[in-house]
Amino acid sequence: MASFVLFLFSPVRRMGDSKYCLLVSQSLLEHGTFDINEYVLFDTATGEPSQAFKNPVSARKGLPYQLERHRKRLYYFFPTGSSILSVPFVAVSLPFHKAPAENGVYVEPNEIQLQLILGSALMACLAGFLYLTARLLLNHRDSIFITIAGAPGTMVWSTASRGLSSHAWGIFLLAVIVYLLLKDRVDETFGRFREIGLATLLAWTYFIRPTFAISILGITIYYIYIKRRIPFAYLVTGAFWLILFLLYSHHLYDQWLPNYYLPGRINFRLDETFWDALSGVLISPSRGLLVFVPTVLACFYLVFKYRNFLPHRPLIVLAMAVIILHTILISSFRQWWGGYSYGPRLFTDVLPWFFLLGILAMKARSDAIRPGSVVMSQWLRGVA
Q: Which of 3, 266, 285, 286 is most buried per CB count within 10 Å?
């Protein structure tokens, strides 16, 4: 509750890529379609249909950059996973006349308010899952510490809670996935139903944002390593959701993947541009991860210092691999700075993996300094 209040009443509120996200939710409710042509989109400043656009993409399209046209239908350009998952929330707003559109007319302030409430609620729930994950290995005090460092101290506050960007739903689901993975290592009770649930959650992270494909790949390889096979329930469930997604895309766009998922914006060459981008996403004064979230350095330091005491090493390898591959991916993105945003926005997608590393590093430190441990014995001999 404290996290929700903190996020909700923080002063910065904005919509960028997420504008019209909840209007799609309303369209699904009222018209059963992803097409939002049924609504009138007015410029809230003039009260007239928008004609001039400052954004170059919008100017080229002749409509807001968040939208695209296909066969006279008007679609949300960005992934619609967040829109689908937000349908129940928008349904609740309708009786209170706070929906994104009233009487068929888009009301931007309504959507801003709804996105702030839902984004704050999701990030508060994420903080709760972070605490629950930490409690699987750590005591109450350390769990509270890492929750505070992990939620208000990262892009959870500055990015994911400021509206309903695709990061919000994505990292919330990924936090649940990380909890399930660690719980499986702790009590080894991962049955068939959990495998179905895990595959479903992973599939929806991809529907929300394609960069989560790296986590899907990493967890699948992890499964092969741990269980020496891909569980049948996991494989079938993942295949079901993938086929459903491909059919959805072909039905709406007459192609097997939506435009946003196509790799045209990725530079696959390790040239000078890539290395400039890599330094930018790590140490840039406006986008650098190590500048805005210095606790990442502390996390890696603890992992290295207490490497001999690290529990659940396969999870350490998984988290590190996903983080490294994600760093390479966003450094290959032509717009590596993430557009108009604050701090290392594009690293938001791997925050749950950083949380997991922090939890395991704290556990290693606790084991290393407890009475009777090798490190403690060496320290005592040095003092004597």
A: 3
